[in-house]
Design a protein that fits this description.
Pfam family, one: DUF8198
Largest sheet: none
Protein name: DUF8198 domain-containing protein
Number of domains: 1
Shape: globular
InterPro entries: DUF8198, FFLEE_fam
Number of strands: 0
Domain DUF8198: 18-232
Structural class: mainly alpha
Number of helices: 13
């Protein structure tokens, strides 16, 4: 079986999302993702503002929580799969494993956010500005808590994977050797996606520790939402 087969499954799931063919839903999804990213920045301001965490924080917001940046990456993955037999032997297996976990998180985030966007589109006019109360009520209506907990469990797994594989000097050297091949075959976006993971790790003592701090607070917020807290997003 190809080392890249997991990407094929994730790409099929991503391409099946309704927002690709629905401009109104796409707009609402963008609104939801923007609100979530602003909320994350606010909720985790202390964690994200530490100098050693700033690159990883941006990796979270740009890559792992979906958005327009992932649309471009998905197109790169689609091209990569067409040439899998030529390039998979050149990419370190552990880099593929780590990349798969990261992409699966981005796809799951988009899936959950599209559900939120659909519900908001059904309940409010398209031009209604999103508020904390609208988002709170929508999360309650959808009962996404189990899926959001799953998302956080996957994040914790990614933290362990990053510490285990992305600190290897030998793997990083092997990955750097792929840069010319990636550029030759126009896979720069995919290469940069993995490169950003390496870069985010450099200033940190442990990605797992950073992520566990992040997910612990997120679990608290989910619990507040579903226990009826009137203002669950504000510390």
């Amino acid at each position: 079986m190809s080392k890249l087969s997991a990407f094929d499954d994730l790409l099929q799931q991503y391409n099946a999302f309704n927002y690709h063919e629905d401009p109104a839903l796409a707009q609402r999804l963008h609104d939801v993702q923007s609100w979530i990213k602003q909320r994350l920045e606010h909720s985790h301001q202390e964690l994200f503002s530490k100098p050693e965490n700033q690159i990883m924080a941006q990796y979270f917001l740009k890559r792992l929580y979906g958005g327009p940046d992932f649309d471009a990456l998905a197109k790169q993955i689609e091209r990569l799969l067409k040439f899998a037999h030529k390039v998979e032997g050149l990419i370190p297996a552990n880099a593929i494993k780590t990349g798969t976990k990261s992409v699966s998180l981005a796809v799951l985030a988009t899936q959950l956010d599209e559900q939120v966007a659909k519900q908001i589109l059904a309940d409010y006019p398209l031009d209604t500005p999103l508020t904390d109360e609208i988002m709170r009520q929508t999360f309650l209506k959808l009962e996404q808590h189990d899926a959001r907990y799953e998302q956080l469990d996957l994040l914790d797994e990614l933290g362990v994977t990053l510490d285990k594989y992305m600190r290897s000097t030998m793997m990083y050297a092997a990955f750097k050797m792929c840069k010319g091949v990636a550029h030759k075959h126009q896979f720069d976006g995919m290469y940069e996606f993995i490169q950003e993971g390496f870069d985010a790790m450099k200033p940190m003592k442990s990605a797992a520790a950073f992520i566990k701090t992040f997910t612990a607070k997120e679990r608290e917020i989910i619990e507040k939402v579903h226990s009826g807290h009137p203002d669950p997003f504000r510390s």
